[in-house]
Model the fold of this input.
Amino acid sequence: MNFEKFLFSKVSTWVLLLVIIFFLIFSFFFGALVLRSETAQKIVLIPKNIKIFFSEELDLGNETDRFGDRQGLKIYKKDSNLYDQKDFLLLSRYSGEKKRSIVELISLRSGETIHQWTPNFEEINKLSKIPEEVVNFKRDHNNSRYQMIHPYLMSNGDLFFHSIYYSPLIKIDICSKVISTLDMLTHHSIEADEDGLWTPITYIPSKNNPGLDESKGVGKSYFYDDGILKVSFDNKKIFEKSFVEILVENKLSYLIFGGKDPSRDPLHLNDIQPVLKSTKYFKKGDLFLSFRNLSMIILYRPSENKVIWFKQFPWELQHDVDILDESRISVFNNNRLRNKFDQNKKYNDFMIYDFEKDEIKYVFKKEFEEYKIQTIGEGLGDLYKDGSIFIEESNFGRILMLDKNGEKIWEYINRSKDNNKLYRLNWSRVINLDLQKFNKELNKNNACKK
Done:
């Protein structure tokens, strides 16, 4: 048979129609299969996963034209007394120029970048023994996709961090060299008390009921058994406990499946705030906990294994709880923006709950609307004694520091100079620092020259 003649031969109309009908039937069948089968879903996602695997950077760029052409740090008011002598920004961000996550120490007096931490994540990953079926380090936590979340800085320049979801807790020195790793699935916030650090953990498979993990085709759907972890400042485990256990032992197990995603991630612990001073309403050593998928703040007492208090709403899918004084806490409220069935909710909120009065007060509400604070998830808000507020709009790459009157003290926008895109921030903080001691440590290490 002549090959060219075969290629250009005429096809009967009825054959063509039959092929089209068959293709449509197959498409409907496969679409229905995708809804039921995890294996089919994985087949559909193959092109996307290939693109993700070979892309140069984590897809954190945001091409929105928000904030005009502003980029970097802009200081509007030089008087650092406006924010309780917290003169340094520990900035954690994804760099569009470097195509990786970095942490920078920036002076809020001069705007100067004093130091930068850029660890080799792929070398760090080699130290972990967590199975690939639980965490795919090569794909999700390589040098271009790792996100250094909520880093905590020691006075000598050592830095604690982990990635946003389920990775070991890492401690590096001032020169970004690994000191230690704690090979557990840590995530979200890192907060300190006088003798250590608290961070959420997740047990996969579930510590309490491994049967909640479901095999589907060739894959597995894990139940996210969230817990609390405390480590010493040399990264040694001090305390850990599953919060599923805590709820069961406090006869609150009905809360476990009351969340947004009861089959997989019912709690979603995103912040642990330790109580540093006893008051009428909470004791030193207590923990305030934020559970996003329950829209709930819980006060837990580890010394007695007791849930002291909990409250749902008016916050919804909130992030970040802080202690303001002897009777008040603050909550950065994402305000359910990821679920848009209430079109009236356009911006985040910042709330204060008063235990003594049992009432909620909204603060800076006008400013949240004026500056269009609307991070879909994540986000931070810290209110200081002088009335100023630190706000991180994580998903859109902006930090605002406002005085008590709502006027800008300074602003940071994480826009890449290379492509003009906005990139995410990874939970930064304003800190006090002995700069002389820090520079002495840098000099001791010959400014980290190799």
User: Anything to note?
Assistant: The two ends are 70 Å apart (CA to CA). Residues 89 and 430 are 5 Å apart (CA to CA). DSSP finds eight helices and 27 strands in the chain.
